[in-house]
Specification:
single chain; alpha+beta; 8-stranded antiparallel sheet; 10 strands; globular
Length: about 250
């Protein structure tokens, strides 16, 4: 005989398993799947700082290399001294151009460099300038001391790509940047730069080469020519080093 409840419905049989409401089963499945995912997300957030900054990918920052500009003229016949006004303008230097030094690697006997040369190490040149920063005038205050910054312009094969590394939000990020011809780097300003400005170059590099040929240097080679306030240094190979004064005269 089947037992009934007070309202007349059959009483549940304790020996039979009770059927679960389908909605209840769906809720259990969803909760069981979502909770582990939330735990994983929380771990990533704690470990990396934010969900948008995983494995060094800083989506909130724009990564770019140093300022670059194309060269005018033929890069296969680059003249370091003829290009000096253009290079100084790119460096932000106005008259007078305060050149500290330059180092030109692999100059030919006609005084030019082939920036497209296929050999390695490839021809390149680095200029160093002193740039005076004019302090902003503030009414009613004393005149601020001038600030100076050192500006480096490097010139090498146009179109070449290089890698750079930056630390952003405590993470190291590596990226590539291209060279249009000239690359500029600027050091932090200072009131007392420990440098000596060189006189304006007084002769073409081909003139130094002409003297070097009389000293036995083969005319079909390439040389490293450096210039600073002390004058010029002409280096050919590993043994020939010639020294010239700022007036281009060969020193004995």
């Amino acid at each position: 005989m089947t037992a009934h409840q007070p309202d007349g419905t059959p009483a549940p049989n304790p020996d039979q398993p009770q059927r679960r409401n389908p909605l209840f089963l769906i809720i259990v499945i969803l909760v069981g799947g979502v909770v582990p995912l939330l735990g994983i997300a929380y771990f990533i957030f704690v470990a990396f700082g934010s969900l948008g900054n995983i494995s060094g990918l800083n989506t909130g920052h724009t990564l770019q290399g140093p300022l670059s500009r194309p060269l005018s003229g033929n890069p296969g016949r680059f003249d370091p001294l003829f290009a000096l006004p253009e290079v100084a303008d790119f460096a932000g230097i106005r008259e007078p151009v305060e050149l500290i030094s330059f180092s030109a690697y692999y100059v030919r006997s006609d005084g030019t460099m082939d920036l497209n040369a296929p050999y390695t190490p490839a021809p390149h040149i680095e200029y160093l300038f002193l740039h005076e920063l004019v302090p902003a005038a503030t009414p009613g205050s004393e005149e601020a001391a001038p600030q100076y910054e050192l500006v480096t312009v490097e010139i090498y094969h146009p179109g070449e790509e290089r890698e750079a590394t930056e630390v952003i939000d405590g993470e190291t990020v590596t990226y590539t940047y291209g060279n249009e011809g000239m690359i500029r780097y600027t050091q932090p300003p200072t009131e007392s730069p420990d440098v000596t400005v060189a006189p304006q170059p007084a002769c073409g590099l081909y003139q130094l080469w002409a003297v070097a040929v009389t000293q036995g240097v083969p005319q079909d080679g390439v040389a490293v020519i450096e210039y600073n306030a002390d004058g010029y240094t002409f280096t050919f190979g590993e043994t020939t080093v010639l020294s010239f004064g700022p007036d281009c005269a060969l020193r004995e």
